[in-house]
Amino acid sequence: MLNCDNICANYGDDICKAxxxxxxxxxxxxxxxxxxxxxxxxxxxxxxxxxxxKNHFELADKISLNISEDMLVHYFNKQAESYKKKHYQPxxxxxxxxxxxxxxxxxxxxxxxNTKERSIGLAEIDNVGLKRLIGNDxxxxxxxxPATCAVRMLEYTPGTGIPLHTDSFGLFKNKYGDDNRLVxxxxxxxxxxxxxxMLQVHDNVITHWSVGDAYEIPEGIFHLxxxxxxxxxxxxxxxxxxxx
Length: 244
Ligand SMILES: O=C(O)CCC(=O)C(=O)O
What we know:
Blueprint: H1 4-11, H2 13-37, H3 41-48, E1 63-64, H4 69-79, E2 84-86, H5 96-108, H6 112-115, E3 117-120, H7 124-134, H8 136-142, E4 150-156, E5 160-165, H9 170-176, E6 183-189, E7 197-201, E8 204-206, E9 213-218, E10 223-227, E11 233-241
Antiparallel strand pairs: 1-9, 2-3, 3-4, 4-11, 5-10, 6-9, 6-11, 7-8, 7-10
Helix pairs in contact: 1-2
The structure holds 2-oxoglutaric acid (AKG).
Residues 154, 162, 167, 185, 187, 223, 225, 235, 237 line the site of 2-oxoglutaric acid.
């Protein structure tokens, strides 16, 4: 910037104007730089929806299901009809708030390599196959009706995971109806817990699970899940209407 004290004092108003313009230009350049370097976009989003991650969220009691790791992992690897391979990214069919979360996460460095996931269950034949392997008794324990549940099985390989997010259950609601019924999701451990496997539901960090342990992730609750260990992590997610 031109130095006002030295120049304007000697040369009057014209120089002052040039000086002000130079200062304004410098400010705009700083603002542009800040926009690209600012790291608080996700926190601003949380503030805008009044979510305080420092508050305590009381997790519902764990439900223990009786499932077979071997049968489910065998089905996943050998018998599944179709896999979906995806990673965490903004998608045009997601509600605006999900898009914003995903954009903020991308900006922080989450990308295809560290969020890639392989899953089954979107194809009806695999949804039915997974429900058969889970069995009606386990659905009863969860308080969910298998006829109106969406089941997916997920594989996270070492070095991958799904960052802090909420789910809007769009695919589920498209299929089973979007009325006033409360929708919820369970995370069910399929593979035994291993180093680096972690689920966090708001401020509850969950590790050391046993096969069949089910944790509820209610709609709108922020959560994440990661595998920074050395063995694949397999889980089921079961989404359904509460009290059906
Ligand atoms: O199963 C997992 O590890 C993650 C599940 C999850 O984050 C979700 O279903 O939204």
